[in-house]
Request: fold
Amino acid sequence: GIAGRERPTGKLVWFHAASIGESQSTLILLDALLQRYPDLNALVTTGTVTSASLMEKRLPRRAFHQYYPLDHPKWVATFLDHWQPDCALWMESEIWPNMIGEINKRKIPAALVNARLSEQSFKRWKLAAGDIKVLLEAFSVCLAQTNEDAAHFTRLGATNVITTDNLKYSAAPLPCDESDLKTLKNAVKDRPLWLYASTHDPEEEIACRIHKHLQKKLPDLLTVIVPRHPDRRESIQKACEKYGLTVKMRGNIHTLPTAKDHIYIADTLGELGLFYRLSPIACIGRSFSSDGGGGHNPIEAAQLGCALLHGPNVQNLAAIFEDFDSAGAAIRLKTEQDFQNRLERLLTDSDGLDALQNKAHRFSQDKAKVLDKVLRTLTPLLQSLEEQQEKQHRTCP
Reply:
């Protein structure tokens, strides 16, 4: 609970996000609130080094990061005594008894935002139903991602539970260097191409096997692979070359693919937005991986107009993938053979490809309204911030 800096003067909103996934949702809401309240400061706490690193790079002016204290009564008190937040916005599913109890005791206005609770977690909390009900009383509103999440929180005793959808749908599109995009388009010209995004082992080899088959019908096909972890570059290159395919690594000097290259490995960081804009088709990685999968974020690809494909293992973002699949805005692939057949169909049917691209993009655009709903719902909680801002403006000469 020892602070790393002084508390800023004026109103302070406190966001708590457990790790990297919750941090990304936090940034969406944080940016909107700081824009709406120009005199507001924001404290963001997380508990992992990776999320702290993300915050260091992404936090806007008037926002700063601190590590979350361990849930010990003394350390919790030290933390709150120093920061004295005017309101607390807790993201997704973080329930720490001592901290939440102290928030309630001090009557700090609080909300549970983008709340989720898996079936497994719900069953565990049911064993301590009395305790969780008392803790949830600290939150004046609970904004759930899905109706199922809302039902879980309601049954555990939360009040004023509202389904708002997932804040990740309101994320800004991934950035892109326009000059790099123009250069890449000139390099690939009108070659048919597809993208395997955020891959894990052995998805690169799956891509190579599919490429070997498809190049019989599409000899100038280009397969673009963006690995989730670029430091695997050497093992990825060896895995691809054993299929007899010509592999080009992008590298830090941004080497371009030539007409002779079959596989283009983008072993760089922060360029996924570039390749989503380049490719008309994207398969989302870690949905066929050997580690059991879990899937990565499909929203980013849909926002940039890609036709969406994914494998069967998407449990980490199950609700989001289910939304896309149910709306016909993405295609779930059961097997590698299914993957191969569907990709061939899309690459040889421009009308079908256009239709799937449009469905994914329209769906992501419709879902992006979740931020507006969250802000409207939080307005009563944030009323004190508005009143403070109005007072300051009235006293200005």
Summary: The two ends are 40 Å apart (CA to CA). The CA atoms of residues 258 and 368 lie 38 Å apart.
